[in-house]
Amino acid sequence: MRNELPPENAYRILESGPIVLVSTRGADGRANLMTMGFHMMMQHEPPLVGAIIGPWDYSHQALSETGECVLAVPTVDLAETVVDIGNCSGDALDKFGHFGLTPVPAQTVDAPLVRQCWANLECRVVDDGWARRYNLWVLEVQRIWIDTARKETRLIHHQGDGRFSVDGDTLDLGERMTKWRHLMG
């Protein structure tokens, strides 16, 4: 037996990337965080990420003004905080302070890293041509920081309607990736 889902639920099937926090700093100097589930890797070299950030997001203005952000990758221990961050707006709230998260200076962008996150990717906008039409920003990753001291490294993935899956076991098939070996670090 098969059950049909409406087409607008395609993200539940296809969106496999982890939930991230987008850190920005506006022209006014205020740092902000937003929760984002709609993003994708676009290519390896240069490393490009597509991110959906629309005018309904307070972070949209800061990204438009500065052209830079940090994609902070939280782990499952931050799941409730990540959901709560996504359910309020930075126009009325200092999210770093309210949620007890620590902003850390980045090296190549003014937006802060998030100390409590397992990974932080410093990014610059390299193409905003699709932003007006599709709210799709193309970001180039400038630097990546990994907290190797963190014991919890399981990532969370949005499945829609407040449901999430959590990373489990890793299946390493690297030896079979003969065609793409040059891309493996």
Automatic annotation (TrEMBL):
Domain Flavin reductase like residue range list: 12-164
Alphabetical list of SMART domains matching this protein: Flavin_Reduct
GO molecular function list: FMN binding; oxidoreductase activity, acting on the CH-NH group of donors, NAD or NADP as acceptor
Amino acids binding FMN: 32, 35, 37-38, 52, 54, 56-59, 88, 90, 95, 179
Keywords, ordered alphabetically: Flavoprotein, FMN, Nucleotide-binding
Cofactor(s) in the UniProt record: FMN
Top-rank taxon: Bacteria
Family: Belongs to the flavoredoxin family.
Name of this chain's protein: Flavin reductase like domain-containing protein
Source organism of this protein record: Methylobacillus flagellatus (strain ATCC 51484 / DSM 6875 / VKM B-1610 / KT)
